[in-house]
C-alpha cells in the first residue's frame, strides 16, 4: 500500500525569515568562536561529519546512481488523486552533466509523466542533519517534494511507519514551502505542520535553496538556507506516538495535480523540472554531538580494525588496546560507528546470526546502524535485531566479530566512548 498523503485542508503557521546571517548551503557551521579567554573554558563544537551524500556527478543523460536510488513507477493517483504516471525514463530523471539530478514532469499523450526516486533499502539514515539543495519547478498544479518514509514501510503501513516532509511546495504558493510530520493520529489533512515564506516574497523556483532538517531522538527542526523556522518534539504529537526513532529513507518526486495543490490550468507550462544539486547526511544536527574514543569489551580488550587497513571488507576484531587509529571509534548521533573514515558494517547487509562484521564505506543503510542498549550494554543492529559479539564468544586478541542473538551475556557488553 502506498502512503495516502491526503491534503484536503491545511492550516499552517507561516514563519517569515529573520534578517540575519545564515549557514552555508553545504554544512551547518557552529557558533562564532568565543574570545580567547572563553575558549579555554568552553571549546567550540566540532563540525558535523558528512556520512553520506550523492552529488549527482556523472555524464549528461545518465541515470541516477542505482546503488542509492530506486524508481517507483505507476499511476492511479497515489492516494491523492494525482494525475501523473511515474516512469523510469531518462526523459523524466537524469543527470545533467553539471552535477545535478533533474526530475522532469511532462505533458504527454493527453496525460502527464514524471519520476519518483527513493533510497528504500539502500540509504536509510537515522538522526543528523539531512539536507538537499534544490531548485524547484513552478506552476499551478505542480507539487515538488523532498521527503522521507519510515524504513519499515510498507510492512508497517502508513501513517504508522511515519513520514517526514522536509520540503513541499504547491505551485499556487510559489513563495511558501512546508515542513510536516505524518504519524499515527496526525496525518492526511490533520498533520503536524508549519510553513516558511521566502524573506523577500519571491518564488522558490527562481533559484537554488537548501532545505534541511536537524533530527534528534526527540526533536526535529526544519531549516531553509540555514534559517530554522520550526521545531516539533515528542510533546507535539497530541498524545500520539512519536515514530521518528528509526531509520527513514529519502524520496524525491514531482507530482502533477492532486487534492492539495489542485490541477494544472491554462497558466501551467510544461515541461517542469526539479533540479537537485545534492542530497547530504551529516552525523549530527548543526554540528558536534559525536563521541570519539575506544570501544572496549567486558574484559577490557579493544574493538579494532584488523591491520589498521582501510579497504572495504576489512574484518573487525578484538585486539589488545594500543591507542592507535584502528581503535579510535566515533559513535555518531546518526547511529553509525566509524573508524578510519569508514563505518562498522554487517557484511552484505545480512541479518542472520553469525554474519560477520566489517569496515565499509559509509552509505546510510541499515547494515551500518547501531544502537546502544541501556542496561545490557549491548551494541545492537536494529535492521537484524542482533547484537555485536566476538566469534565463538571468545574475548581474545585477534578474535573476529559477528552479529548474534541478543542474550545479555558479558561477551555482548561494550563500553562506548
Radius of gyration: 23 Å
Instruction: Give the name of the CATH architecture of the largest domain.
Output: Sandwich
Globally, the shape reads elongated
- Strand composition percent: 35-45%
Helix content: under 10%
Individual helix count: 1
CA distance, first residue to last residue: 42 Å
CATH class of the largest domain, please?
Mainly Beta
Largest sheet: 10 strands, mixed
Integer count of domains: 2
* Average pLDDT reading: 86
Regions with pLDDT < 50 over 5+ consecutive residues? Answer: 4-46
Total strand segments = 31
At the fold tier of CATH, the topology name of the largest domain is: Jelly Rolls
Pairing-aware structural class of the strands and helices? mainly beta
Signal peptide: 1-31
Family: Belongs to the glycosyl hydrolase 16 family.
Domain GH16: 27-287
Protein name: Endo-1,3-beta-glucanase
Summarize the structure.
The chain is an all-beta fold. It has one helix at residues 36-41; strands at residues 14-16, 50-54, 70-72, 84-86, 93-95, 101-108, 111-114, 116-118, 128-135, 142-150, 163-168, 176-182, 192-197, 209-216, 219-224, 227-233, 248-256, 272-282, 291-293, 296-297, 302-305, 316-319, 329-331, 337-339, 342-346, 357-360, 371-373, 378-381, 386-390, 401-404, 414-415.
Notable traits:
signal; Trefoil (Acidic Fibroblast Growth Factor, subunit A); 37% strand; ten-stranded mixed sheet; Endo-1,3-beta-glucanase; Jelly Rolls; mainly beta; Ricin_B_lectin; 417 residues; Ricin_B-like_lectins
Amino acid at each position: 500500500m502506498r502512503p495516502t498523503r491526503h491534503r484536503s485542508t491545511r492550516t499552517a503557521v507561516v514563519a517569515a525569515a529573520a534578517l540575519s546571517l545564515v549557514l552555508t548551503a553545504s554544512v551547518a557551521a557552529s557558533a562564532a568562536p568565543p574570545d580567547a579567554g572563553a575558549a579555554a573554558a568552553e571549546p567550540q563544537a566540532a563540525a558535523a561529519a558528512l556520512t553520506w551524500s550523492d552529488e549527482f556527478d556523472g555524464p549528461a543523460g545518465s541515470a541516477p546512481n542505482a546503488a542509492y536510488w530506486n524508481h517507483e513507477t505507476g499511476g492511479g493517483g497515489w492516494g491523492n488523486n494525482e494525475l501523473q504516471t511515474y516512469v523510469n525514463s531518462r526523459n523524466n530523471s537524469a543527470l545533467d552533466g553539471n552535477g545535478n539530478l533533474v526530475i522532469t514532469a511532462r505533458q504527454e499523450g493527453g496525460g502527464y509523466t514524471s519520476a519518483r526516486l527513493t533510497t528504500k533499502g539502500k540509504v536509510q539514515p537515522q538522526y543528523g542533519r539531512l539536507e538537499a539543495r534544490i531548485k524547484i519547478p513552478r506552476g499551478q498544479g505542480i507539487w515538488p517534494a523532498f521527503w522521507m518514509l519510515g524504513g519499515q514501510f510498507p510492512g508497517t503501513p502508513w501513517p504508522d511507519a511515519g513520514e517526514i516532509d522536509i520540503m513541499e511546495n504547491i505551485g499556487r504558493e510559489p513563495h511558501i514551502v512546508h515542513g510536516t510530520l505524518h504519524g499515527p493520529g496526525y496525518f492526511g489533512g490533520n498533520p503536524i505542520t508549519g510553513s516558511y515564506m521566502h524573506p523577500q516574497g519571491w518564488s522558490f523556483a527562481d533559484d537554488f535553496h537548501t532545505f534541511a532538517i536537524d533530527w534528534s531522538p526527540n526533536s526535529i527542526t526544519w531549516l531553509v538556507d540555514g534559517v530554522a523556522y520550526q521545531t516539533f518534539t515528542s510533546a507535539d504529537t497530541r498524545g500520539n506516538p512519536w515514530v521518528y526513532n528509526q531509520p527513514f529513507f529519502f524520496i524525491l518526486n514531482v507530482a502533477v495535480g492532486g487534492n492539495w495543490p489542485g490541477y494544472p490550468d491554462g497558466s501551467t507550462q510544461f515541461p517542469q523540472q526539479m533540479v537537485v544539486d545534492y542530497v547530504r547526511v551529516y552525523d549530527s544536527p548543526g554540528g558536534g554531538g559525536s563521541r570519539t574514543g575506544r570501544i572496549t569489551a567486558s574484559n577490557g580488550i579493544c574493538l579494532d580494525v584488523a591491520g589498521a587497513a582501510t579497504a572495504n571488507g576489512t574484518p573487525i576484531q578484538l585486539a589488545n588496546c594500543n591507542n592507535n587509529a584502528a581503535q579510535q571509534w566515533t559513535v555518531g548521533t546518526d547511529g553509525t560507528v566509524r573508524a578510519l573514515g569508514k563505518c562498522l558494517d554487517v557484511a552484505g547487509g545480512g541479518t542472520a546470526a553469525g554474519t560477520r562484521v566489517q569496515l565499509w564505506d559509509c552509505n546510510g543503510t541499515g547494515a551500518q546502524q547501531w544502537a546502544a542498549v541501556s542496561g545490557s550494554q549491548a551494541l545492537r543492529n536494529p535492521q537484524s535485531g542482533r547484537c555485536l559479539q566476538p566469534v565463538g564468544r571468545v574475548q581474545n586478541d585477534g578474535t573476529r566479530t559477528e552479529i548474534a542473538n541478543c542474550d545479555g551475556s558479558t561477551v555482548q557488553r561494550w563500553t562506548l566512548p
